[in-house]
Amino acid sequence: MNIVLREVTKRFGTTTAVDRVSLDIGVGEMFTLLGPSGCGKTTLLRMLAGFAAVDAGEIRFGDRRVDRLPPYARNIGMVFQNYALWPHMTVRGNVTYGLRLRKLTAAEIERRLAAGLARVNLTGLEDRYPGQLSGGQQQRVALARALVLNPDILLLDEPLSNLDAKIRVQVRGEIRTLQRDLGITTVYVTHDQEEALSLSDRVAVMREGRVQQVAAPKALYERPANRFVADFVGTNNFIPGIVKECAADVAVVETPLGPIRARPGEAAPGDSCVLAVRPENVALGGAGENIVEGRVRLAAYLGNTLRYDIETPAGLVLKVDVGDPWQHDVLPAGRRVRVTFAASVTLILRGD
């Protein structure tokens, strides 16, 4: 089922938590709301669920307007950040709670329970209590409880935030596989950009209640709409400048580091801008259209990457990633180096 939001707004007193958000979410799409704490993403999810009233605008599930309907009339499944499991109920009791409220037959309840637990690899744990389960297993119980209702739409509010890093990666893969297998339209909320990029068909980046950009993960990472998106999604080097020349294939921007050649955007000569180039696209030495001299200030070993901070004479620090630390001797602090990067990976962005 598709989801349509038109000019959806939510206020708390004088604070506008969600500001005229319009989105189109496709049938069977895994759609993520991404942003920092306080950006409005969870409030927007709660409005989709019916737990928060819409002050303006409308929400449609398919052809049906739902923003004035109570949660139980929307046929949604919801997985909360803290799982919201009843501690005095077994897995069986938690998963079948909604089914019993719907007064389904005992046979149908058992059938859905068995199918739901099989989907999330919890078969055989029906009689355990939440306190006897790991965090990952508790998360799966919450997911099974949502799915046994056969919802049209699945909503997940930072469901992995309470798990440790390794289990989080494992469970997010399970969620993505299950969502694809079921073909259920899913809206997922997170502040973790890696989670959003790895899980989603498309991502909406939010800031102060407004959507900054909606795009597929690759486009979001490689073509951010503005500085905020470029800074929030991954790591970037930012270089302020003024556009001097624009041609069909390249632009020249005057910066504190000297003239920099960049991929042309919508900027025109005379415009103030900020250039963005990711650390993995900057090389130590070698040839490149843009060459900057500097000194090593810091080298940080990150496992599969070695990240240098290179201080330039202008005072700007450029981050440079070496992708194969095993084959690289770490340069000491103070060593003079030359870094290079291509115009094709240097983006001209708005500064807002």
* Counted beta strands: 20
Order of helices and strands: EEEHEEEHHHHEHEHEEHHEEEEEEEEEE
> Low-confidence runs (pLDDT<50, min 5 residues)?
none
What class do helices, strands and sheet pairing give?
alpha+beta
Gyration radius from CA atoms, angstroms:
24 Å
Adjacency order of strands in the biggest sheet:
6-7-8-3-9-10
Strand fraction equals 25-35%
Give the overall pLDDT as a whole number: 93
What's the shape? elongated
Number of H/I helices: 9
Task: Describe the sheet with the most strands.
Answer: 6 strands, mixed
Head-to-tail CA distance between termini: 35 Å
Describe this structure in words.
With 352 residues, the chain is α+β, with helices and mostly antiparallel strands. The chain has 9 helices and 20 strands. It has helices spanning 41-49, 91-95, 97-101, 106-119, 135-147, 165-182, 193-199, 217-222, 227-232, and strands spanning 3-12, 15-25, 30-34, 56-61, 64-65, 76-79, 153-157, 185-190, 202-207, 210-215, 237-246, 251-255, 258-262, 272-277, 283-284, 290-301, 306-311, 317-322, 336-341, 347-349. It has a 6-stranded mixed β-sheet, with helices on both faces. The protein has a 5-stranded antiparallel β-sheet with strand order 13-12-11-14-20, with no helix packed on it. The longest helix has 18 residues, at 165-182. The two termini are 35 Å apart. The mean pLDDT is 93.
